[in-house]
Design goal:
The complex is a heterodimer of chains A (about 500) and B (about 425). Helices cover about 30% and strands about 25% of the residues of chain A. Chain A has about 500 residues and is an alpha+beta fold. The chains are: A alpha+beta (about 500), B alpha/beta (about 425). At the A-B interface, β18, α9, α12, β23 and α13 of A face β7, β8, α3, α4 and β12 of B.
Chain lengths: ~500, ~425
């Protein structure tokens, strides 16, 4: 077993851990980011509605809520961050549907209160304006509350880009590295992982839905989090034109959010029915799928079951679920020095930029020296998206590199050149290629491209094709070479 | 020939595309190109190593690759120009084709006419919305077929097949021959989705359990699939409580339907039929866009390749005539409507002036029926099934019975009085 020494160990390569890693790479710090999955952003970050929202906080802003502040501070930071990292960001605006006078009265009050603390972006729009903005929205709506600030991103690509940029700027990143135990020492922690020992002066615990478990390893704090499971359905791009804003209705039952939103790639997402669950269970159920579809159809009646191309489960971390409210933890442990807990839970993506800054400040207060890294380069170039290029760019690219003329994913028009680039940047699995390039995310869901991507992965990684996995250890997709089974039987 | 002189461009070189290209050339089109994204002509025929191809067309029992080679040779003899490793990424209403190719770069050209022959694709798990986890080991039957027959891999050794389409049943047999154990073929309907010959030769002959009126209601396993829960369904296809049982497996194949591949057609503004999923065509297989024709599984999913070839020959001949400027009089257009127990009829319109073959499918299994074609033709059948396409030929004599000015003709599948 190897031993590694680092100054700051960040546990958890989701959106928050990756944002912290990238923030720390602005300083001359020896930082290490560890992620137990085979890729960054594959926990809660992956199963996400992709909305940069205000978590209901803009209307319910409370100075005493840390998450209100973090989300609010992050709002102006997200777009420049996405631009620096060359990942999609679309400010589409949000419409909260108002169906009756009671709701109207309630929103009036909330809006007035929000304005009293300086949040003035909301405006009421009447039924007619709503119809012009969103002709396919439910006829039940008598109007809507419009928030033009709301945007959408691709949280996994953003996370991968943050990790990639952090790495470019000197952060050590380790995947498939699971923290098993932590022993606090006098001036450094000894962290046992499945890849060996890591010794670190500081620890940032950004372990997502396992944040309390990691904290418990050092008795850092006794906070309890409740994993709340939500369902998201994905609709074919051909349904993408139904709406152009994020649209939702106020939950009628607590814990039920009825959201329909475009994705940055032109699909629609709908979700989510939320329920308390055990945290390992990423399965969907028939019942939640049906409820989610029905409630989505109450917002946009023309949504058709026929257009569903995929569905998944995501987790939100709530504290005080039973009380119906949630507050995040971004603070130094009161019990163990040099140990920072980061649990946003919801909305993690929206709060990430300010949270990262806050963590570096907390580390500094705990004794970490922050000396600027003069070589820090904030820019990272995305993998070329062939389908988005102009005719001239396409022509030039195909001429220069024939691999861009070889389309491997027909639904999303992804070329071999893009797949090879994704692998060069760290994709080692079918899903790794999918989240970086969209090969397999289209309407045929990998039926066409998976044999092709599988073959390219084996070639580029120089491994036998039967070693290629869907998403890391234990998920090989081809179990036998031809005739091997017959030999086994004989 | 440069691409700027192309008369007819055929998109896709499976059985439909090859037949269309050959026929276009035979009809007199000078320059015919056959565009194919793979390295060789033939499309999916290469992965269909089983037999049963060509019984009608050649009067011989051929394998998929053999059937392909008959046509590939003819393509070469006829000097059709193949454009291999070339993916068409766009077609416009005015016939401009955009394609990319590692070999030929970024291509745009404007043939005089186009034949759409892109075939079909399989419905995926997402389209079925099967609840459960998202592990490795779930394949559409056709993707598994490619892995086994072309790439040289066996996906797993304990297999469940959901759906009893032809490829699913054929893969159940294929995987059994490769040493895997097929635990069950699970079909939600009371009868199989594919051909009766495949039910007998691929499922029963290999003692594979066939669970009719059952479906998979949950998928288990985090990393690799470990089991599925199956349940019996009621008449509305809803799972019946307390009939659930778990079947251990490491692989789930899906054979739950094929969808004509019409992304390019839509780009060109071709009008689609929501029932077939393919273009609305007239008897010449012209789509709603003049000069764009379609044939084979891109129009409607066939169960026999022989019919794909025949239908596409018609599209190819028409495309050649269009390219050569031969106009056919569009004086009379009769819409064919689906009546009792008829799901669809292709073509969607006829002229009433030329003899032709109607292709149709019924909605439900029925015994002792008579197909009635708008009062001009009828055909008694012992049994009809949604899985078996019906063909009715209309002769000029029968068409003469049509009253001048008829705008619509209904096709019914009637219960025979004596049954």
């Amino acid at each position: 077993m190897s031993e590694l020494k680092t100054e700051v160990l960040i546990i958890g390569g989701g959106i928050l851990g990756a944002a912290v890693a990238r923030e720390l790479s602005k300083y001359k710090i020896d930082a290490t980011l560890v992620e137990k999955e085979v890729d960054f952003g594959w926990g809660s970050t992956k199963a996400n509605l992709c909305i940069v929202n205000q978590g209901g906080d803009a209307l319910e802003f409370r100075k005493e809520y840390q998450r209100s502040k973090l989300v609010w501070e992050s709002m102006p930071m997200m777009e420049p961050l996405c631009r620096e990292l060359d990942v999609p960001f679309k400010r589409i605006g949000e419409l909260t549907i108002i169906r009756n006078n009671d709701e109207m009265a309630k929103y009036r009050k909330l809006k007035t209160r929000a304005e009293s603390v300086g949040i003035t972006c909301h405006q009421f729009i009447d039924q007619e304006t709503l119809r012009t903005m969103e002709p396919n929205v439910t006829k039940e709506a008598i109007g809507a509350l419009y928030d033009p600030m709301i945007a959408i991103v691709d949280p996994v690509r953003l996370t991968m880009a943050l990790a990639e940029n952090a790495e470019q700027n000197g952060v050590n990143t380790m995947r498939e590295t699971e923290v098993l135990d932590i022993s606090p020492g006098i001036d450094e922690f000894e962290v046992q992982t499945n890849q060996g020992i890591i010794k670190s002066k500081f620890i940032v615990n950004a372990a997502g839905i396992f944040v309390d478990k990691i904290a418990a390893l050092v008795n850092a704090d006794d906070f309890v989090v409740f994993p709340i499971k939500g369902y998201v359905g994905v609709l074919d791009k051909k349904a993408g034109g139904l709406i152009s804003h994020e649209i939702h209705t106020r939950p009628e039952v607590p814990g039920q959010m009825n959201i329909v939103t475009p994705s940055v790639y032109g699909n629609l997402f709908f979700g989510t029915t939320m329920q308390l669950s055990k945290r390992h269970d990423y399965s969907t159920t028939r019942e939640t799928a049906e409820i989610a579809l029905r409630t989505a159809q109450r917002v946009v009646p023309d949504i058709s079951e026929k257009d569903i191309i995929n569905s998944f489960t995501g987790y939100l971390m709530f504290r005080n679920w039973e009380l119906g409210w949630h507050e995040c933890v971004v603070s130094a442990s009161g019990k163990v020095p040099r140990f920072i807990n980061v649990c946003i839970g919801y909305p993690g993506v929206s709060a990430a930029p300010a949270t990262a800054k806050k963590v570096s400040k907390l580390l500094n207060e705990e004794g970490l020296r922050l000396e600027e890294n003069p070589d820090f380069n904030p820019h990272r170039k995305a993998i070329i998206d062939f389908s988005e290029l102009s005719v001239e760019q396409k022509r030039a690219l195909v001429t220069e590199d024939a691999r861009y003329g070889h389309v491997v994913c027909r639904c999303e028009t992804v070329t071999e050149g893009e797949v090879v680039d994704a692998i060069a940047r760290g994709a080692t699995t079918l899903d790794g290629v999918k989240f970086r390039t969209r090969a397999g995310m289209g309407r045929c869901q990998g039926g066409f491209c998976s044999p092709r991507v599988s073959r390219i992965l084996a070639r580029e990684l120089d491994i036998p094709e039967e070693e290629v996995t869907k998403k890391g250890a234990g998920s090989r997709h081809l179990l036998y070479k031809s005739k091997r089974l017959l030999e086994e039987m004989a | 020939m440069t691409l700027q002189d192309v008369d007819v461009a055929v998109i896709g070189s499976g059985p439909a595309g090859m037949a269309a290209a050959i026929k276009a050339k035979e009809t007199g089109a000078q320059n015919v190109v056959l565009m194919e994204r793979a390295e060789q002509l033939g499309g999916l025929l290469h992965q269909c190593v089983h037999n049963g191809f060509g019984l009608l067309y050649f009067g011989e029992d051929l394998t998929g690759p053999e059937y392909a080679h008959r046509f590939i040779e003819k393509v070469m003899d006829m000097k059709v120009r193949p454009l291999l490793e070339t993916m068409v990424i766009g077609i416009s209403r005015d016939h401009e084709i955009t394609a990319v190719s590692g070999k030929n770069g970024y291509i745009t050209f404007r043939p005089k006419s186009i034949v759409l022959a892109m075939g079909c694709r399989e419905r995926s798990r997402g389209a079925l919305n099967i609840p459960g986890t998202r592990p490795a080991g779930i394949f559409t039957a056709g993707t598994a077929q490619r892995f086994v027959n072309v790439e040289g891999f066996v996906p797993g050794k304990k297999i469940v097949v959901l759906g009893s389409g032809d490829i699913g049943m054929i893969m159940a047999r294929r995987l059994t021959l490769e040493g895997a154990k097929v635990e069950a073929v699970v079909e939600i309907l009371p009868y199989v989705g594919g051909l009766i010959r495949n039910e007998v030769q691929c499922v029963h002959d290999f003692d594979i359990p066939l669970l009719l009126e059952h479906t998979v209601i949950q998928i288990h396993g985090e990393r690799r699939i470990e089991a599925v829960t199956v349940a019996k369904v009621d008449n509305n296809r809803n799972p019946i409580p307390d009939t659930e049982r778990e079947i251990e497996c490491d692989t789930l194949l899906l054979s739950v339907g094929l969808i004509p591949e019409n992304e390019l057609s839509s780009m060109a503004g071709v009008e689609l039929d929501p029932v077939t999923g393919g273009p609305i065509v007239d008897e010449m297989r012209q789509t709603s866009v003049p000069g764009i024709f379609a044939g084979g599984n891109v129009v409607h999913v066939h169960d026999l390749v022989d019919n794909v070839s025949w239908e596409s020959e018609l599209a190819g001949a028409s495309a050649a005539m269009f390219a050569m400027g031969t106009k056919w009089p569009e004086t009379w257009k009769i819409a064919l409507k689906s009546g009792r127990n008829i799901r669809y009829v292709v073509p969607h319109t006829i002229s009433g002036e030329r003899e032709l073959t109607l292709y149709m499918r019924v909605g439900e299994v029925e015994e002792g029926v008579r197909l009635k074609i708008g009062g001009i033709a009828s055909k008694a059948l012992r049994v009809v099934k949604p899985s078996e396409m019906l063909k009715v030929e209309l002769s000029t004599a029968q068409l003469k019975k049509l009253k001048r000015g008829t705008k619509e003709m209904v096709v019914d599948c009637e219960k025979r009085a004596d049954k």
